[in-house]
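Q: Hi! First time doing this. I have a protein sequence and I read that you can turn it into a structure. Is that right? Here it is:
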Amino acid sequence: MISDNKPWLQFYGDIPNEVEVPELSLYGALLDRARQNPGLYAVEFMGAKFTFSEMVSLIDKAADALSSSGVEEGDCVTLALPNIPNAVILFYALNKIGAKVAMVHPLSPAVDLEYYLKKTESKWAVTIGQLVPKFMEIIDRTKTEKLLVVGIADYLPTLKAVAYRLTNRVKIPNEPKIMKWKKFLSSGSGMRKGSQKSDADCHDASVILFSGGTSDTPKGILLSDFSFNALAVNTQKTSDFMAGDSIVAILPVFHGFGLGLCIHMAMVCGGMSILIPKFSTENYIAALIKHKPQFIAGVPTLFEALLRDPGFTGVRFDKLKGAYSGGDSLPHEVKMKFDAALRAQGSKVDLLEGYGTTECVTACVLTPPGHYRKGSIGVPMVNMETCIVKEDSTEVLPPNEEGEICIAGPQLMVSYLDDCEATAKTLRVHGDGKLWIHSGDQGYMDADGYLYFKSRIKRIFKVSGVNVYPPQVEYVLESHPAVSKACVIGVHDDYQGKSVKAFVVLADNGGGDSELADELRAYCAERLIKWSVPKTIVFRRELPTTLVGKVAYTALERAASN
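A: Yes, that's right. Below is the predicted 3D structure, encoded as structure tokens:
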């Protein structure tokens, strides 16, 4: 009998209503799988393959080197890396010794990297050679003691490694704070100690992912081993991901979707993560043709880019078991076109839309296979629940009534980093006694438990699946001496979903010109991630205001949509 409180269970079919989440550390969960399937491949990287047994050996060696080099239990290390084996190795090695790991975008501007290092009090930072100059600009203003430099060629097959180094020569400065990967690995004592982190600590914060806030600074989201393990088993039961399956990991390792789904879920389920360090449709299509993965996952713009590439028609999907879209709303037209392409290229599956927030690692809602409803983002996954509450309250609203989307279940974050006020506002106990995340997203749920996303209560939108926070962009624009006031909105973009449009009032109340607009874009590019840089800048003598004198950004949004 279907519970009145969980009407979505009727769409689960053979999927269990609940599943037990292993109370293991991240390293422990991987080790458990490696003992079951030591000879299966866990990671593929540009032609190099590593079995589960080999990955555990690499992780153990790195953990030994970390401990021997002075990184201790409770320390934090920031990784600013693309999807390369070093990132996976260090993620689990740091967990093994009980250290926290902060995953950040390697293309973040220096000012953001400085903020991340200071906010997390990182003892070490890790990046690739090309980004060393950016770190050396700011490292002396932080408490970070070492910069570990890794290379994309470190784990490439021999001939590819030689070719890569010849065409990508990077000179690493000889600085006391810099340590190179090979020397780092040789610093270990050679003793393979057991895990220094107890599985009993799996509910404690171990991973920090950053998500921008509604102010000028991003929030650090503290996630536990248990929350990642919950995502893994919840997704496995929903998708039927099996040992020996593979997934293309083109989504970045510093994002919950990429780290939680394409790496941790795949590996603890006995699957292979196919790492792609830099996105291009050419690279992605080549990986699809070569590996014929059972699962693919991406943001809507990725699927749209594939459809536009003539080479995509050469991909066969005969082995495909699941295709998932997340990170942003999936346009109905893109889904229909991609579904048609899958059919024409040998697959019987549909592209399924998911929904989630970094505060619950990533996906917690997914469209049930065979039960797509236009406009809906799906129903709660195994072990997860959603409800709609009246804004700024815990009052649960009836079906089809709009309010704030709330999420409960084992994937929830521990807290925000050093922000008790924001944590208390986001994590709330409802009348049912359960802890719920208040997502800041507005939507409604129908009588069958299907969720519909409408808009973001917080000022936030996505460009190519990447969060853009208008207050952060406005803060940067207004720090330029020529700017008095700025307002930023997201406008429709055929390719990226949305793009950034800025309305600017100058300090001299002048009209502005294209040269100044270019200067402001360049100024933003030095201080913001590239997706947050305004594509369009409009100069105005004044901005519309509300009755209490605040900038009426909604008026600009309405005007832009007409």
